[in-house]
Every structure is written in structure tokens, then in C-alpha cells.
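Hey,
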Amino acid sequence: MNVIKKTSSKCGREIVLKEQYGIGKTILIVGVVHGEEPQGKALIENYFPCKNTNRMLFLPCLNPDGYSKNERQNSNGVDLNRNYPTKNWVKSERNQYFGGEEPASETETKFMLEVFEEYKPDIILTIHAPYKVVNYDGPADEYAKKISDIIGYSTSNDIGYPTPGSMGNYFGVERNVPIITLELDEEVPVEDLQGKMNNVFDYLACC
């Protein structure tokens, strides 16, 4: 995989977008939106792409500052999955779900928005934990069902609590792009998840 775009976090850590070239759909896979949910980074970095037909874009760690401290938020104390300029964004209390002083205030959010505008992904997968569910927004139900069959979790288009300013709202609800928020079982070692996640990535490479 080749690095095709990068930026740096507030603390100077690299945020990189990698590409496995292909034709057909463009698939964007994102890890570590929340720093205390590290599984996505290892799963992406230990995946060796199959001979795919789709163009695969991988962003292993969106939140390297949070990852370095095992904390949900970035270095400004912002929950990156509440910082998108959605119609339902609100300035919230400064707690673990704080969405920033204004929408799209964070370097990491701006980078994701640039990636979206530049590469126009047809499907987005973000890797989270710990709820063991294939959550989806936008026209993603068929993809969610297939991923559910692979990973063994149920599907849901409602995570069960409000998510103003989320990726799901911005990309899925408001822009009608299929987006899967895959919530993994945090009690399962990441190396034990790798096989099934490789199958998920292979499915998206060829869907």
C-alpha cells in the first residue's frame, strides 16, 4: 500500500491515508476514531490485500494523539465522532463526548473531509468497539448484512443514543453514502479478530 495523503496531529503525529489501487468502487476504511478503541490500527496494518477489483483506501489511525494516551478524545479534548458539520451538531458540555467549540474545528476532522471530497468514497467502514454490532447509516443495509454474516454480530441502524455531529450523520444520513460503524468485541484479542476482519476487508475489496 502506498501513502497518498497525510497530515499531522496537534502533537505532531502523522495521520496517513494509504491506497491499494484498484478499479470499480472506492472503499474507505478508518481506524482509531476514538483513541481508546485501538483495534482498527492493528487490523488494518496486519491486513494484506487480496487481488481486489475495488480501490481500497486505508486510514489506520485517525486519532494518534488519543491513541498514544489511550483516551477517547484528541489532544484538544474533542470527540472526533461529534465534530462533523452536520445539521444536528450542537455545542455540548466539555465531557468525553464534547464535539468541539465549532463543527469541523479539528485537524483530524478536516483531514477526513478533505479525503471525502478528494477521493469520493462509495462505501465507508469505520472500526470501533465495544458493542458487538454492525451499525450503519445511509443506504448500507445490504453491506451491513453481509458483514454481519462474516463477523457474527447483529445489524442496527440505531446505536441507541444520540450522536450529533457524527460521521454516520454527515456521510450516511446527509450525503447518502453507505457507512458502516463496525463495533468490535473489545474483550477478544485483536489477533483473534484478524481472520474475520480480513474476510470483511476482502468482501469490500470485491463487492
